């Protein structure tokens, strides 16, 4: 327990406040805080997140008690992503969040850094050099069974497709390669991943996954060369969870992705601002029908 009964007396300059790197159990705890904030993380997200960059998760503590966190995942030397930025309610407004923020930003250094932030926080992120690229919209709906095959589109279990092919396709849809994260993400014990494979040459033309969350199931990523492939992947995924709540995080700037959500009677829940410190990565947003995760990009 904290030695300060009233957090309002605490300051981030006090020696009892410290920032340390998270352990895997710490990431689990941070996702519990995220659930309390209504972010609805996946039940098995912690291991996948930690695999992306074990050095990129920071916990703020007061007298050893965790009071806040941030993730600052480095994807190689050129790109990073900020997420899981939380200070426990009773400790907010005292400057602890800024200490955590600075720790994450220093760790990511000169990389191009992305984040998905709530719209109201855009002015604060701009002060740190972030520029709005586009908005992502979370859609919610109910899964209905419709997994009839579409002519010319073959859907396979992604784990049956050579991983290097999946990795190459994912890297074209993301800002860079993320092998450790992708391997862990697609292999989550309560997730299902599907790929669209070309019938003629076996090339990957789409990749998607659905995972069990605190509430319902989230689809992410949903990458596809075109709307018919995205539709086939979506239906293949939700056919396994009929009647369950499903969520899809859609780049607003991809009208085909918005149309996919609309045709499945999904309704918008909230928006985030996708922002970067440098130029927006050269990602084909017309093929991004669902963001992998707001926490790691």
TrEMBL record:
<dbReference type="InterPro" id="IPR052729">
    <property type="entry name" value="Acyl/Acetyltrans_Enzymes"/>
</dbReference>
<dbReference type="Pfam" id="PF18014">
    <property type="entry name" value="Acetyltransf_18"/>
</dbReference>
<dbReference type="InterPro" id="IPR000182">
    <property type="entry name" value="GNAT_dom"/>
</dbReference>
<dbReference type="InterPro" id="IPR016181">
    <property type="entry name" value="Acyl_CoA_acyltransferase"/>
</dbReference>
<feature type="domain" description="N-acetyltransferase">
    <location>
        <begin position="17"/>
        <end position="162"/>
    </location>
</feature>
<dbReference type="InterPro" id="IPR041496">
    <property type="entry name" value="YitH/HolE_GNAT"/>
</dbReference>
<protein>
    <submittedName>
        <fullName>N-acetyltransferase GCN5</fullName>
    </submittedName>
</protein>
<dbReference type="Pfam" id="PF00583">
    <property type="entry name" value="Acetyltransf_1"/>
</dbReference>
<dbReference type="GO" id="GO:0016747">
    <property type="term" value="F:acyltransferase activity, transferring groups other than amino-acyl groups"/>
</dbReference>
């Amino acid at each position: 327990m904290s030695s300060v009964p009233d957090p309002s007396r605490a300051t981030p300059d006090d020696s009892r406040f410290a920032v340390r790197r998270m352990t895997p159990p710490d990431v689990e705890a941070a996702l519990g805080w995220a659930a309390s904030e209504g972010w609805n993380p996946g039940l098995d997200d912690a291991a996948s997140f930690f695999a992306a960059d074990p050095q990129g998760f920071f916990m703020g503590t007061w007298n050893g008690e965790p009071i806040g966190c941030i993730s600052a995942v480095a994807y190689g030397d050129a790109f990073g992503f900020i997420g899981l930025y939380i200070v426990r309610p009773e400790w907010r407004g005292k400057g602890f969040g800024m200490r955590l923020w600075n720790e994450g930003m220093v760790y990511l250094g000169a990389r191009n850094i992305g984040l998905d932030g709530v719209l109201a926080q855009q002015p604060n992120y701009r002060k740190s050099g972030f520029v709005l690229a586009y908005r992502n919209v979370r859609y919610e709906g109910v899964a209905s069974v419709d997994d009839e095959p579409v002519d010319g589109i073959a859907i396979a279990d992604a784990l049956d497709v050579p991983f290097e092919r999946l990795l190459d396709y994912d890297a074209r849809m993301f800002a860079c390669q993320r092998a450790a994260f992708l391997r862990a993400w697609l292999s989550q014990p309560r997730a299902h991943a599907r790929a669209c494979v070309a019938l003629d040459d076996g090339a990957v033309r789409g990749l998607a996954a659905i995972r069990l969350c605190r509430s319902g199931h989230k689809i992410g990523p949903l990458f596809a060369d075109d709307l018919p492939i995205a539709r086939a992947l979506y239906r293949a995924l939700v056919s396994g969870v009929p009647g369950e709540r499903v969520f899809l995080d859609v780049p607003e700037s991809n009208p085909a992705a918005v149309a996919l959500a609309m045709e499945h009677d999904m309704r918008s829940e909230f928006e985030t601002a996708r922002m970067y410190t440098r130029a927006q990565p050269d990602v084909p947003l017309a093929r991004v029908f669902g963001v992998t995760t707001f926490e790691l990009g």
